[in-house]
Design brief:
alpha/beta, 8-stranded mixed sheet, 39% strand
């Protein structure tokens, strides 16, 4: 049996196996694009095969086909994230339905340079929508006692350690909303991202933002009595909107003159709004000094 005959047999077996796994729901459609982008590797493998065919090292010609076989399945399983209905070619919906056993939600969002919009709340624990022609996030979720832990990781980037990248001209956007009833703790990381967080109807208990070169809009509500927020935003712009009926405590020496002009009093190294001790809810906000700009207004 020649190496070429062996190669075509392996490729046909692989294609058939991938289609069967796709039809069985083990894989989704994401991996087809990955295989297409990496298809030049097949030409490289055929070239190596031709070099070593009918030589003393002919076993290398067979090894290239074996590498294509296992490599193709590895790419397929790596690329098939995001749920059974996820497709690179279409808009994708992720939904975690309401569950009375869930008493709190802990969400971690790793955006890279993906834009994020959180607007309104809903009856689902989590609802997500991801644009077509974008690589969908990897989603991990599990229950820890009565807490739902969910982690969304952007897959914007690369294959083979960054050697191959798949980018599109359009923005890669996530649209999310969380439960209107279940308290939320949210950690959000992103660089070069447009982050729009309207959490006025979400029972937010804790928020951490860690960004670089990002634009952040954050609107808060009155659904929890005490909320802790930390913002580390190197070269990022933050616009913060809070209800006028809330007590606000801001930690951040770099913004002293601005906060004093807004009527805040300096107490024990922090800045508190008028009536802070008696108002409910209370927000404690820790700002690092690396923000490019910071603005605060009440509504």
């Amino acid at each position: 049996m020649t190496p070429a005959r062996f190669r075509w047999g392996v490729i046909l077996i692989q294609i058939g196996g991938l289609i069967l796994l796709r039809n069985a729901g083990v894989l989704n459609d994401n991996f087809w694009v990955d295989l297409l982008v990496l298809s030049p590797i097949v030409l490289i493998a055929i070239g190596i095969e031709k070099i070593f065919t009918k030589s003393r090292l002919q076993f290398i010609a067979y090894l290239t086909s074996v590498g294509l076989f296992f490599g193709g399945f590895l790419i397929a399983f790596y690329g098939s994230f995001g749920g059974d209905t996820t497709s690179f070619f279409s808009e994708t919906i992720y939904r975690k339905e309401s569950n009375p056993n869930v008493k709190s939600i802990s969400a971690t969002l790793r955006l890279d340079d993906t834009d994020l919009t959180i607007r309104d709340s809903g009856r689902d624990l989590i609802y997500g929508r991801f644009d077509r022609f974008t690589r969908k996030p990897k989603i991990d979720e599990h229950m820890n006692s009565e807490e739902l832990e969910v982690r969304l990781v952007s897959r914007y980037g690369s294959f083979l350690g960054g050697v191959v990248r798949l980018d599109t001209d359009g923005p890669q956007d996530w649209y999310l909303k969380f439960s209107e009833d279940v308290p939320l703790e949210l950690d959000c990381y992103g660089d070069n991202a447009d982050i729009h967080l309207n959490l006025s109807t979400t029972p937010l208990k804790r928020l951490r933002l860690d960004t670089k070169d990002a634009t952040i809009y954050l609107k808060l509500g009155v659904l929890e009595d005490y909320v802790v927020i930390a913002v580390a935003g190197e070269d990022s712009d933050l616009r913060l909107r809070v209800p006028a009926t809330t007590g606000l405590k801001v930690v951040g020496e770099d913004y002293e003159s601005y906060l004093v002009r807004l009527g805040f009093d300096k107490v024990a190294g922090a800045y508190i709004s008028e009536g802070y001790d008696t108002l409910i809810p209370k927000y404690e906000i820790d700002l690092d000094g690396d923000l490019s700009s910071f603005s605060l207004d009440f509504f």
